[in-house]
TrEMBL record:
Start and end residues of each RNase H type-1 domain: 147-227
Species name: Theobroma cacao (Cacao)
Listed name of the protein: RNase H type-1 domain-containing protein
Organism superkingdom: Eukaryota
Gene Ontology MF, one: RNA-DNA hybrid ribonuclease activity
Length: 227
């Protein structure tokens, strides 16, 4: 068996790569700290998945938390492959940031009415998952479907700091609201406005190969004046 590509200490198994390897373990702990908790992870992926989905968050909507499992696991796997096949250096902070971007993008794609702003989910996941009180509705931007035959790209960019580690994400939907394309990636260090412009650029590069008319939607009102 091959040694773990991340720590190069223990032979690589599924459970080691995703949980017990010190480098991937730090990604899970980083996510847990965002929620104000410490956690002793189970020793295998099957048990972690079961416990993760059964975790009670009090009065919080658990969908963002549960999506974190899939985003972290996918980000660890993708980043590990880049380390092996592209020689890219592993960065725990970057893997966690990419997982956060994926959570925000996927949650927005899955539940656009409840989570209309991927940027808000990225910045404040624990606040965004607070359930509205009885008789209240969650505030946010209402997502409107495009006309028949058109597609709509919703994009967001965010940075932790000014400048700081930044990422972009986007979702392409058709007139039925069905998701056709999702993208999310890190873009280095910059500010939020530049990150959102890079998200728009990425959308343009993608939909230039799409058939039909495409509308691009973004959260910042300052962006159109900068284009």
């Amino acid at each position: 068996m091959l040694q773990c590509a991340l720590c190069n200490v223990v032979r690589e198994t599924c459970d080691h790569l995703f949980i017990t390897c010190r480098k991937s373990w730090k990604v899970w702990m980083g996510w847990c700290r965002m929620w104000g908790m410490g956690w002793v992870l189970p020793g295998n992926v099957k048990d972690l998945f079961a416990v993760w989905n059964e975790w009670q968050l009090g009065g919080l909507d658990g969908r963002i938390w549960r999506m974190g499992f899939f985003a972290i696991a996918w980000s660890v796997w993708k980043s590990k492959n880049k380390t092996v096949f592209q020689g890219k250096e592993w960065s725990t902070d970057q893997v966690l940031e990419l997982a956060r971007i994926r959570v925000a993008t996927w949650v927005n794609a899955k539940w656009p009415r409840e989570y209309p702003s991927a940027l808000d989910v990225y910045r404040q996941p624990t606040i965004q998952c607070q359930l509205p009180k009885k008789g209240q509705e969650r505030k946010g931007i209402q997502w409107d479907k495009p006309r028949y035959g058109q597609m709509k790209f919703n994009v967001d960019g965010a940075a932790r700091g000014c400048p700081g580690p930044a990422g972009i994400g986007g979702i392409l939907r058709d007139h039925r609201g069905e998701v056709k394309i999702i993208f999310s990636k890190l873009i280095g260090e910059t500010d939020s406005k530049f990150a959102e412009m890079m998200a728009i650029k990425e959308a343009f590069l993608i939909f230039q190969f799409q058939d039909g008319r495409t509308i691009t939607s973004f959260s910042s009102k300052a962006i159109p004046a900068m284009l």
